[in-house]
Amino acid sequence: MTEFSRRRLMQLTAAGALAAGAAPDIALAGYKPMLPIEKGAHLQMLRWTGFVGADDKHWKMNSEAFTKATGVPVSIQEISWDEVQAKSGLAAQLGSGPDIIMGFYDDPFIYPDKLVDVSDVCGYLEKKYGGFYNIARTYGYDDAQKRWIAVPIGGPGDAVAYRESWVKEAGYDTFPKDFDGFLDLSRKLKKQNHPIGLALGHAVGDANTWTHWVLWGFGGKQVDENNKVTIESKETYEALKYAKALYETMIPGVSSWLDINNNQAFLAGQISATINGISIWYVAKEKFPEIYKDTRNAPMPVGPVGHQTMFNLFSQAFIFKYSKYPNAAKEYLRFMSEKPQMAPWLTAMFGYVTPALKDYAKLPIWTSNPNITPYRDALVDNLPEGYAGKPGRAAATALNDFVIVNMFADVCVHGTAPQEAAKRAAQQLREIYGA
Amino acid sequence: MLDRPNVLGLLLAAPASLILVLLLAYPLGLGIWLSLSDAVLGSPAHFVGLRNYIQLFHDPVYQGAVFYALMYTVCSEALKLFLGLGLALLLNRRFRGYRAARAIMLLPWVAPTVLSALAWNWLLNPQFSAISWLLMKLGLIHGYINFLGETWPARISLIVVNVWRGIPYFAMGYLAGLTAIPKDLIEAASIDGATRFTIFRRIIWPLLLPVTTILLSFSTIWTVTDFQLIWTMTRGGPLNATQVFTTLAYQRAINGGTLGQGAAIAASVIPIMLILAFIALRSTREGS
Fold first, then answer.
1. ipTM higher than threshold 0.85
2. Strand (E) or helix (H) holding A78
3. Do residues A203 and B236 make contact, with C-beta atoms less than 8 angstroms apart?
4. Do domains A6-155+312-376 and A159-311+401-434 have the same CATH topology?
5. What are the pLDDT digits (tens) for A206-235?
6. Domain ranges, ordered by start, for chain A
7. In this complex, do B42 and A254 lie within 8 Å of one another by their Cβ atoms?
């Protein structure tokens, strides 16, 4: 594996900017707003605190470049990612707050009528950068009203982080590509006293990610295309049985894990593999050189359905109708999504966010290190919250109530029969979707 | 005109009353209205009567939250009272460094809840728990304890943390109560040959009763409405085992967007709070 140095990163950042055809300053010189910006406009934006430091830093730098180009000051407020939903909900309810919010999943579908139509910005970006991934469309395009209600940004994608030497000791030269291989490897790793670990507590990101991935990997769905509850199915039972077998190979205590625990356990050398964003590898690189040397990232194995069934976090930015400066806000989101800004931002954070626009998969950062490459394709086969149903409030409530996570925990931790656990989940889902 | 007691009294009470109406009565009224509506974030609300309450009544997650909220409160309060009183009796004695001991005792109470919850998260971590490590070194256990990952250990752990945080409040209150007990009463009883236990039972405890009522009612109000500690440590997990009114209300109303149902969960605490507030108010009056 090639050593990934700060110098290399700087080269890549420069390359990312140059790939856009111009360095940022040159781009600014020829910058023309697409829309007439309101006089005296100033913007407030609420976003999630970056999972890696370079994220916030470069986002702010790009923001300053926008101010320089347009004269529109932008103040950015950052809060923990799992609190954004609450804040944006309140802003929608009160009709006042930040002009732009960078939210998650299908937040825009909770209050679609309160959001500014951003079809012009999305149309422009789609045309220029090879189109959006399906998942971006699902979370940003309102099919009912035939308009974009959010500008998709990207997803802090997931992949497997694992210890190469331990996996090799278990007899695997590369990380398994399917569920059966993953289970077999996990059993062998457990025998060698190097168990894997996946969060099964109320971990908003990590627990939801892997349980949905397994459920969908077997073809299970909480609801069908018409939001009819379909969780009680043969596929769900198979998924639960598989998860139970996998749970038995895990380090004790995952049932209490919140989002931070798998990172801590991996970086302390207590687990051999987990599913996470690139932050584990990134932090290992910065602070844990011994673990970094042995850490590898691989795409998540594929289930019996035969294609990837990932459930990554996904972020999109939306503008509230109460904003006095909707044009400035739209212009800001367009500016931030353009290559001179996007390329250095993504490069500086080693691709922590997989962009929603397909052309950005061509940036050199993705192939600069084999451990970054798995994150490039994180959005290709990403399924949406509440799959296979429609995005919206019911899907958000089910996710926030941890219905799927608890169904898995019920089987794995409490030893409940899959049929019984699915039945309980179905009752809860019927309440949620029926309401 | 200002000389009239009625007018002056009203004028003086007006600012505080206004603040109470604006900041307390209005949100409370709004909360009750929301609980009777189908309000969801970002959409207009319609009156639905008691539908939210009826739904909650059949909701196993809510039933679990009621059970744990009551268990959490009753167990925590009993332990805090008992241990707080014990600590106050100890600290009421004059010994070398008693002032420092009183100051140190306050630390769990003054530390921000989120900070202490995070510290406890480490102490109860399934991989890095210092408690498990110590017990293993002593040969008492063979593997790390899954404090927050299983139903009962998680429920008990949160009670322990709540007790740890709340003891100083009881101890300080009791310490103040003990200082106020006239020394001559105790001396007279000693001269009459009363044992220490009799003195406690017949003199100290009855004189501490008004303080106990105040301490207990206020502390119960805070415990029933405790949110930060549980949210930081378990988020109501595992499997909703540590869900209480506040966490479930937040989860449903703010994260899930179903304001009506969240408000109904929150409003269902009001009867309990009213009883407690009534007791607290009465005992404050009696105390004065």
1. no
2. strand A74-79
3. no
4. yes
5. 999 999 999 999 999 999 999 999 999 999
6. 6-155+312-376, 159-311+401-434
7. no
CB proximity list for B212: less than 8 A, separation 6 or greater: B81, B174
Evaluate if residue B272 carries a pLDDT over 90.
no
According to DSSP, the residues that pair with A77 across neighbouring strands are: A46
Task: Confirm or reject contact between A378 and chain B (CB < 8 A).
Answer: no
Contacts of B235 in chain A (CB under 8 A): 201-202, 204, 258
Domain map of chain B by residue range? 52-287
Superfamily of domain A159-311+401-434, CATH level 4: Periplasmic binding protein-like II (3.40.190.10)
Q: Are A118 and A149 in contact (CB under 8 A)?
A: yes
CATH architecture, range A6-155+312-376: 3-Layer(aba) Sandwich (3.40)
The pLDDT tens digits of the residues spanning A288-335 come to 999 999 999 999 999 999 999 999 999 999 999 999 999 999 999 999
- A328 near A70, Cβ under 8 Å? yes
* Per-residue pLDDT tens digits for A162-186: 999 999 999 999 999 999 999 999 9
Query: Tokens in use for A218?
Result: 């077997």
Regarding beta strands A74-79 and A43-48, do their DSSP bridges make them parallel or antiparallel, or are they unpaired?
A: parallel
Q: Where are the alpha helices (DSSP H) in B4-112?
A: 5-20, 26-35, 51-57, 60-91, 98-105, 107-110
Q: Is A229 on the interface with B (CB under 8 A)?
A: no
CATH number, domain B52-287: 1.10.3720.10
Question: ∠ at Cα A423 (A419, A425), nearest 5°?
Answer: 120
Task: Tell me how close the Cα of A419 comes to any Cα of chain B, in angstroms.
Answer: 17
Spatial separation of the C-alpha atoms in residues A389 and B280, rounded to whole Å: 50
What is the band of A397 on the pLDDT scale with cuts at 50, 70, 90?
A: confident
